[in-house]
Design goal:
Shape: globular
Oligomer: single chain
Number of helices: 9
Number of strands: 24
Length: 406
């Protein structure tokens, strides 16, 4: 019997840990129940931190953890899924192709930034979506001192006033001063089509966010979108042209394209609709988790968000349930009643809220300390020690409140 997990993000990592944990509890051998994780590299990209400097350091190795829990690592990219034959077709190094049969499949392929067909976006836009994107942005920022001093050189436009956009924008003044010099006066502008900043946060936290933007000198252009980009900067739907050498696109994400190969119903974000055990109901043997799945968190109409906070716990349930079916033991319905947000606000501190109502419980330096702990400790893989690694993946104990909406 074999479980194949596609993806080494937060959901994929915890699916592997949790499946191995249940296998261990049930006394099954790795030969009886194989667990294979497929990804291009055996590393966890700490994606929630990619708005920070030095993005090339924001990865964590997984190979030793996987070895410690007897999970096979398969290097390559899943190219196609044949759900009738229960086979995943993989493109490995140098274009070599291989097939991997499965008895249960866990789709943990994550999400990608949604890039609309806006003139000039592909040529002139940056992002902090994937590791390569963040590295390209960082290199671009470090190239700015070689350019003649100008308002455009020192201006950054961030398209998107949600979590990713706010964190990228509020981090940018200090990043630019570190690169251009302490006397530099960088200009940062957030552009969003909504009439209010952070539309998903609601009215409670918004004044704190707005105050932080004022303290940092971050401007906003609300009720307008990016109409086009060129070498000189951006033109907004309002007709305003902003001269800027750096434009960061941070407006919306979608489930990774591979989910479209599973013949099942999806939502507007491309996520596969799953039942409470995270199965894809219409496709035998397939589970979906993390950003690839639209899953109910509770009985109150709340659904998992596309965040590492939800992906971690969802992964633990998906891996457990895939193994449970093959081992003939009861599955566990996914539930995640606790929900927090922890929004980085750069040198202005941070904002921490609890519950779906986003009740503000921490601000400023206290919230910043919590944010640092989340970013540098809580969301990293467990140590490569078998007992501790397996214990970390109990789906009922994987924390409800680590991570943050991203």
């Amino acid at each position: 019997m074999r479980i194949v997990i596609i993806g080494a993000g937060f959901a994929g990592m915890y699916a592997a840990l949790s499946a191995a944990r249940l296998r261990d509890i049930q006394g099954a051998s790795p030969e009886t129940l194989e667990i294979a994780l497929v990804s291009p590299e055996p590393t966890l990209v700490v994606r929630p931190r990619l708005y920070e400097p030095k993005p090339e350091t924001l990865t964590a190795p997984l190979l030793n953890v996987l070895k410690a829990i007897d999970v096979d690592y398969v290097q390559g990219s899943a190219e196609t899924i044949d759900t009738k034959s229960k086979v995943v077709n993989i493109v490995a190094a140098k274009g070599a192709k291989k097939q991997l049969a499965y008895d249960r499949l866990v789709v943990a392929t994550g999400s990608r930034l949604f890039r609309p067909n806006i003139p000039g976006l592909a040529e002139h836009g940056f992002s902090v979506d994937q590791l390569d994107d963040a590295i390209a942005l960082d290199r671009h920022l470090h190239s700015l001192p070689s350019r003649p001093a100008s308002k455009a050189r020192d201006t950054v436009v961030v398209a998107g006033g949600g979590f990713t956009g706010i964190e990228a924008a509020t981090e940018m003044p200090s990043r630019l001063r570190a690169i251009l010099g302490k006397e530099a006066k960088p200009r940062v502008i957030i552009v969003d089509r909504n009439e209010a900043i952070a539309p998903d946060m609601g009215a409670g936290p918004r004044p704190i966010i707005e105050d932080a933007l004022r303290k940092l000198g971050v401007e906003t252009r609300l009720g307008a979108g990016v109409a086009s980009l060129d070498k000189s900067g951006v033109t907004l739907s309002s007709g305003e042209h902003i001269e800027a050498a750096t434009v960061i696109w941070a407006a919306g994400i979608r489930a990774a394209p591979l989910t479209a190969q599973v013949p099942a119903e999806r939502d507007n974000f491309g996520r596969l609709l799953v039942d409470r055990e995270l199965r894809v109901p219409s496709v035998a043997g397939v589970f979906a988790t993390g950003d690839a799945a639209r899953a109910s968190c509770d009985g109150n109409g709340n659904y998992a968000l596309m965040s590492c906070q939800h992906a971690t716990r969802m992964g633990a349930f998906a891996g457990n349930n895939a193994a449970a079916e093959l081992l003939g033991v009861p599955t566990k319905p996914y539930h995640q009643k606790g929900y927090v947000t922890c929004l980085d606000l750069g040198e202005a501190g941070a904002l921490f809220t609890r519950g779906w109502e986003r009740e503000v419980t921490m601000v400023n330096d206290v919230a910043k300390k919590t944010k640092r702990e989340i970013n540098t400790v809580w969301i990293y893989p467990p140590k490569a020690e078998r007992a501790a690694a397996l214990a970390s993946a109990d789906p009922e104990r994987v924390t409800d409140v680590t991570g943050f909406f991203h």
